[in-house]
Here is the input.
Amino acid sequence: MPETQDPHVSQSSSVKFVYDFTEGNKDLKDLLGGKGANLAEMTNLGLPVPPGFTITTEACKVYLESGSEPAALRAEVSEHLDALEQRMGKKLGQADDPLLVSVRSGAKFSMPGMMDTVLNIGLSDASVSGLATQAGDERFAWDSYRRLIQMFGKTVLGVDGELFEEALENAKHTKGVAVDVDLDAADLRALVDSFKQIVTKETGRDFPQDPREQMDLAVRAVFDSWNTDRAKLYRRQERIPGDLGTAVNVCSMVFGNLGPDSGTGVAFTRDPASGHQGVYGDYLQNAQGEDVVAGIRNTVPLADLESIDKASYDELMQIMETLETHYKDLCDIEFTIERGKLWMLQTRVGKRTAGAAFRIATQLVDQGLIDEAEALQRVTGGQLAQLMFPRFDLDAKSELIGRGIAASPGAAVGKAVFDSYTAVKWSRSGEKVILIRRETNPDDLNGMIAAEGILTSRGGKTSHAAVVARGMGKTCVCGAEELEVDTKTRKLTTKDGTVIEEGDVVSIDGSTGKVYVGEVPVVPSPVVEYFEGRMHAGAEDADELVKAVHRIMAYADRVRRLRVRANADNAEDAARARRFGAQGIGLCRTEHMFLGERREMVERLILADTDADKEAALAELLPLQKADFTELFEAMDGLPVTVRLLDPPLHEFLPDITDLSVRVALAEARQEPHENDLRLLQAVHKLHEQNPMLGLRGVRLGLVIPGLFAMQVRAIAEAAAERKNAKGDPRAEIMIPLVGTVQELEIVREEAERVIAEVEQARGVDLKLTLGTMIELPRAALTAGQIAESADFFSFGTNDLTQTVWGFSRDDVEASFFTAYLEKGIFGVSPFETIDKDGVGSLVRSAAAAGRATRPDLKLGVCGEHGGDPDSVHFFHEVGLDYVSCSPFRIPVARLEAGRAAAESQGSDSR
Here is the structure.
């Protein structure tokens, strides 16, 4: 295709909907989907790819929007089909020597098993004998035909797949064999008749015999599969946009089910579970591709192919090296061998575990294939978070009941469940579950998401369970053959006869493939030990992982612009945060310092009738607050500490009004003394609020209760002064919460500056304390330019800002209707998890700009939990904030994502 030609437009200026494999390349994924683009790329590289063509995502979009294919599509498909027939020297479905094709989905982003595929299109009653004659193998022809009817019936005609499975099982039972390869031609011919009867009974029509009708219906079914429930659920889980559509690849068939010198397999250029280089993958003789990923028959390791077919093995190894060097990444490859001839059916950048992602990124740097900036883009904060999860304590007492293939690492413990419905149901009730199946299929996606981990008795590292689990970062053990899974009786039976029933606790180790009965204790992750300063990881493999994490984190820290602080309320959390790389405290919530016995002191302050009582309560609280800040400033010496003054609503410090009312009523009924409780109840009634989160809290509390904020400011100032006089370097920042107007901030600031000046004079120090505010109300964001006149810094409280922008009460809505909103696609993700860029984000952007327009040196940060969310960190980098703040364990994630955001923006600028 000429470089000057728009790939979406033909030379006649009409939209082009079909591309031959020779026309595309790997950069056209938006148009050709990942599979089509990569088939074209392999064709361009001269690799053995069966000829074919791709129907574009644009055709799918037209179909999904209008309900019918584009008017020009049929003619374009016919044109490309004619060219394919001429090239192959045979026609689709012709009786004596039929051309057969596969019809396969292929979206821009990999969605393994979520959309539809149909193989052997073109077979019919008229052509099956011709295929047998040409192949010299009658069994192969009838096996291919039964596969077509089974896949077509389920995928295109909507027949329950269990009906075909039951008929196949009955055929094997009648024959007295365990696997389908032991069925002969006569058995398969009878099975074809059974399958056709199922189609007729279930659909009211016969299985279509016209090969072009088969192909057209299959293409339409692939388009439709974009919007199946499982595909939509997977897209929500992986945050894939719903408007991309899928391409459809029509490829001439090559056959792996032609006997022992044929087969099909999946290969990885590196181990997707560990990242180690070597020969990784699965191979299945005398099979078609879907047999491998479905896990119906257990495969042999790819290395065994060397002894089965050395010529094909050597060629495959060379092609794998070519593809990895070309794509500069781990490649996932599907191939078929047809009577000793190797064919490449697909390649893509392979999904990998979190540990493999870090190892592979650094390996590729060492090989000179990518630089450090690209290595940083190859890993994510989500993957780093997975590496920080605990792992099983291998020294603990445990009962091993089996071993399978370590498909996706992690330590998962939960109650055994044997179907997806139960997994979802129990999970929603708060139970942790392990989904146990013979093998999973795309319909199990709901249960896989709900489960802590997945265990299957069939399949390998390339089975559906393994591939999907790795993509989701979910612990998975596959192919545990010694465990017998009976989903009907809901039992798992071990080799020695031990029975695990539904509800029994099991533990699975996705790093070793081991399965245990009962709960196995866990120990900290070696990556967490590294971040806490204990470099030894306890295992050679883990040490290698820690080194990879260290290298990438070091580079991220060098290039990032955003600083990362911690949300920490005590010295212990502050010290841990500092070990994790925090560059200060972005949020110290002083309300957490008023729990336990101090709550009664605050209660006395709020309910005090006289000024003397209020002053006595404040005097009692002052030394306690000062001690809190002394510890905090010591732990964070030399780094900024942002202290938020008391923020929560009054009801958090007062007795529960219902409990108090009951107590008074009971005392009255028993004629017992209750004057104090009655007085307290009257006071609580007076202060009771219908919506306390929008009531007397934050700056309003400081203005209504004289001396409260002044006491806290004095405690901060005195603690800082003592630290400074002890040759320390305290860097306190005082933050006033819930400001909605500059006048509130001005009044509190004036009082705070007076108190600070008194302390400075008394202690003979210059504290250089700064005063700022949280921006957590829409009005504060909209008037940020005015508020900046009295603020040294802004810290965006995105938790409350999200609540007030959306009109959500977080404590209520997440449990009530968020699930429905996510399922209906109203949310792609909860706005409390990732910042709502269009709504909340636009206020952050405009407030940051307005604040800096008033005060160019205004420091800007964020202290809501969005500060540790990967997607949100990129947004805060883009908006120009100075720092993010998050909980201590999310600090490494924020550091990594801040580096990725900087590297990404530098890459965009250079382009």
About this structure: The CA atoms of residues 98 and 631 lie 82 Å apart.
